[in-house]
Amino acid sequence: MARSVLVTGGNRGIGLAIAQAFVAQGDKVAVTHRGSAVPDGLLGVRCDVTDGAQVEAAFKEIAEAHGPVEVLVSNAGITADTLLLRMNEDTFDRVIDTNLAGAYRVAKQAASAMLRKRWGRIIFISSVAGLSGSPGQVNYAASKAGLVGMARSIARELGSRNITANVVAPGFVETEMTETVSDERKAEILGQAAIRRFGRPEEIAAAVTWLASDESSYVTGAVLPVDGGVGMGH
Predict the structure, then answer these.
(1) Nearest residue to 220 via CA among 119, 141, 143, 140
(2) Is 218 a catalytic residue?
(3) Where is the Ketoreductase domain (predicted)?
(4) How many other C-beta atoms can be found within 10 angstroms of the C-beta atom of residue 24?
(5) 3-state SS assignment for residue 191
(6) Alpha carbons 160 and 37: distance in angstroms, whole number
(7) Which of the following is catalytic: 22, 59, 124, 140?
(8) Do residues 16 and 3 lie in contact, with contact meaning Cβ atoms separated by under 8 Å?
(9) With the C-alpha atoms ordered 9, 12, 13, 19, is the resulting torsion angle positive or negative?
């Protein structure tokens, strides 16, 4: 049976690969965006996850088109990299508000309908940076680490209602966002990977669709690294 799936920030990169993987399974998939084009086959909903009113309106629009959200993939995120001593509070707050508080906003909206249905899947897209740290990414790493505590708290609160909450932590994946990384930094990251290549968006999508499936129904509060072995031990 087709499920109502929402992927925030699902109009490009990893988010788009995740959305298309759910479409391939026959699900009804909505993606949030902030004004960019949305590929055919997806319901595009304009929504800035830093705005609670927009988040609430987006969930109403999705429910009218596809039914209440049953699978939430919280993927929307930004970076604003700079070293700690150069990072001002606005740069820190902006990343936290989008990546962490935005995840809270969409999870809260999704949980309400999931509780009524007594079934749901919530999947947060974190990063190896949230587990291992990354120079110049104090704000980003903090936001991605926070998703682990959020998911595990939600897992404990909602598990008795057959709602799971898990985290996928990608490593370096070749997308538009990572194209701006210097060749020197790419070589450094590649040297840390046990599998000597970068990841593909489709490999992240495969982990997400599994966590949303019935086969993973006894998995909750887990962090699944998909990073080629960069973060082993975390």
Answers:
(1) 119
(2) no
(3) 3-176
(4) 12
(5) helix
(6) 39
(7) 140
(8) no
(9) positive
Q: Of 177, 185, 222, 228, whose CA–CA distance to 204 is shortest?
A: 228
Closest CA to 25 of 208, 170, 200: 208
- The dihedral of CA 53, 148, 159, 209: what is its sign? positive
Nearest to 72 by CA among 218, 175, 206, 211: 211
Among 186, 96, 104, 177, smallest CA distance to 144 is for 96
CB 104 within 8 A of CB 38: no
Question: What is the spatial distance between Cα 141 and Cα 131, in angstroms, rounded to a whole number?
Answer: 8
For each of the chain's 234 residues, which pLDDT tens digit applies? 899 999 999 999 999 999 999 999 999 999 999 988 889 999 999 999 999 999 999 999 999 999 999 999 999 999 999 999 999 999 999 999 999 999 999 999 999 999 999 999 999 999 999 999 999 999 999 999 999 999 999 999 999 999 999 999 999 998 776 777 778 877 887 888 899 889 999 999 999 999 999 999 999 999 999 999 988 866
DSSP letter for each residue of 200-221: -HHHHHHHHHHHTSGGGTT--S
Q: For the purposes of burial, counting CB atoms within 10 Å of the CB of 44, is it exposed (0-12), middle (13-18) or buried (19 or more)?
A: middle
Domain 4-226 sits in which CATH superfamily? NAD(P)-binding Rossmann-like Domain (3.40.50.720)
Q: Which residues pair with 37 in a beta bridge?
A: none
Q: Which two tokens stand for residue 178?
A: 């990572």
